[in-house]
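Design a sequence for this backbone.
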């Protein structure tokens, strides 16, 4: 079961006009989308993206056009959102939601290779039909490249040690499965040391972010969609770790005007076009009740802006 994170908060941030056009960039199991659709009236439209064809197929039944509301599902990277909107003949939208990261479905299906809890080939591609797998990366990248990836995307200070252990292990035998890789990382880090999180957590996150080029995709969708929002349109992003959150926060902050005093008197508003304002000054986190029932919500932060002004 994939329980949508901070569902009410997302809807509250996003839906300002029930006849508007709303985009869910990360359909997953369609949890947020289904509720967004319910809030739309005659003439409203929902466009859902996922680069995972399984997600598109899974939600097709759940999210259908009807009762005056239109639904379009798009199998593509959200980085290509602007081109896809052009194809659909849509210039501007009222709201955009991004719920970043992997879905519980992707984690639960062993063959997708995202999880170090289940033994399977190391795949980790969100789009199973394109690109290099994490297994190919682990077995071919240089020691330096691996160390950089694990340091940059996993923020693991043992990155060099882990990269060396990977290269040493693969010189004897190909690193074929998730558990094999998790074991190599665990040993390189000197075991569990009583910690709750598995020592391979950050390495797995780093490899996933690298093969899916995640940060570049987020930057690109935010950049292009800023210019595709109606005046007063809303963008809401759920992030799950500090790298994502930092990127989103800094991106939005560049659009929120700051006032600088001028020598000759008066003030100047400094911002990147188009201007935006925070819907909440601080990111929202899930309530204690939600965190108790949905562990995935524990690391979530919701940031949202209104575009225009
Ligand atoms: C956390 S899940 C979304 C869950 C959804 N909000 C729900 O309530 O069911 C994230 C989804 O986004 C998809 N995704 C991640 N990065 C993507 C990208 N760059 N383009 C399109 N879809 C992406 C993943 O394949 C996954 O299905």
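Sequence:
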């Amino acid at each position: 079961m994939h329980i949508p994170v901070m569902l009410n908060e997302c809807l509250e941030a996003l839906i300002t006009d029930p006849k508007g056009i709303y985009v869910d960039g990360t359909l997953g199991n369609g949890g947020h989308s289904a509720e967004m659709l319910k809030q739309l009236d005659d003439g409203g439209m929902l466009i859902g993206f996922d680069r995972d064809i399984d997600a598109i197929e899974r939600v097709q039944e759940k999210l259908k056009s009807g009762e005056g509301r239109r639904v379009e599902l798009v199998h593509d990277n959200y980085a290509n959102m602007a081109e896809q909107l052009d194809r659909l003949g849509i210039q501007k939208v009222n709201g955009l939601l991004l719920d970043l990261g992997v879905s519980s479905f992707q984690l639960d299906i062993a063959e997708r290779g995202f999880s170090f809890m289940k033994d399977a080939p190391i795949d980790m591609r969100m789009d199973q039909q394109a690109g290099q797998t994490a297994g190919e990366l682990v077995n071919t990248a240089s020691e330096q490249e691996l160390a950089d990836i694990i340091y940059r995307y996993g923020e693991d200070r043992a990155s060099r040690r882990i990269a060396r252990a990977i290269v040493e292990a693969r010189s004897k035998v190909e690193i074929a499965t998730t558990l094999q890789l998790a074991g190599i990382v665990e040993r390189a880090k000197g075991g569990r040391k009583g910690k709750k999180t598995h020592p391979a957590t950050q390495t797995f996150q780093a490899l996933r972010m690298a093969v899916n080029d995640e940060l570049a995709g987020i930057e690109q969708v935010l950049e292009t969609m800023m210019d595709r929002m109606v005046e007063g349109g809303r963008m809401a992003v759920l992030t799950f770790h500090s790298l994502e959150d930092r990127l989103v926060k800094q991106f939005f902050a560049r659009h929120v005007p700051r006032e600088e005093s001028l020598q000759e008197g008066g003030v100047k508003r400094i911002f990147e076009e188009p201007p935006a304002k925070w819907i909440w000054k601080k990111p929202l986190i899930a309530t204690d009740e939600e965190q108790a029932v949905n562990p995935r919500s524990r690391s979530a932060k919701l940031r949202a802006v209104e575009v225009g002004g």
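The radius of gyration is 21 Å.
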